Amino acid sequence: MRLLKQLVPAVVVAAAGNAAVQAVGGNPYLTLVLGVATAALALFVYARTVRWSERREPAEVAAAGAVAATGRGMLIGAGMFAAVILNIAFLGGYRVDGLGSVTGAVAMIGFMAAAAVTEEVIFRGILFRIVEERLGTWLALVLTAVLFGVMHLFNAHATLWGAIAIAIEAGGMLAAAYAATRTLWLPIGLHFGWNFAAAGIFATEVSGNGASQGLLNGVTSGPALLTGGGFGPEASPYAVVFGLLLTVVFMSLARRRGNLVPLRRRAAATLSR
Predict the structure, then answer these.
(1) Rounded Cα gap, residues 22 and 7, in angstroms
(2) Per-residue confidence at 267, pLDDT binned at 50, 70, 90?
């Protein structure tokens, strides 16, 4: 019941906000404003529903330290994508043909802010956190990572391998980032930094959603096994490897900080039946 009380409002905000952002896709400045507004509304609604359904202050979205943690996440996410694209470029799968579009990059800030915040609220703030209470950190990570990958199967140019790659490199990594810090700010920053670097800087496809206009006029070519094909570099083996490495780092931090939640005995007994 608590899951539904939090999930339904979050999904409604995400659906309405992202639809509004898509509807004004031709206007980069309206896209920016509506995207940031959707992100802010999603966080506000999440905080209110947690207070209402759990009778506690939502420390995971507390304002203290939010800017620093989000900034760190953005740097890690953007740096991780840059490492992926540089490795692809080294093997001839990506090149830059001049400068791209500043207004396109502005639009991507709004679009990716809405996507990153709403998805992190739903998948890490609600699903992972509540499932973790019953099934423990590791099972919650696996289950929500699979759901995150399945969600990306509905994108325009989605592939099964792309969805599997997203589940491994992003679903696992972002849940691990939450487990390590117990706030949503680092996962939100990671998610935004990765997506904005992919679309708003390097102008590559993001999760099968088609080509983007970024600060660079990037051209991807070569075998899909290397570049990720129509799904984008997220389906590249480089992205999977780097995502797995960060997952290991974050889970190691979570273990050292005592943040790993064990499987509850009652839940274990239920699963074994």
Answers:
(1) 22
(2) low
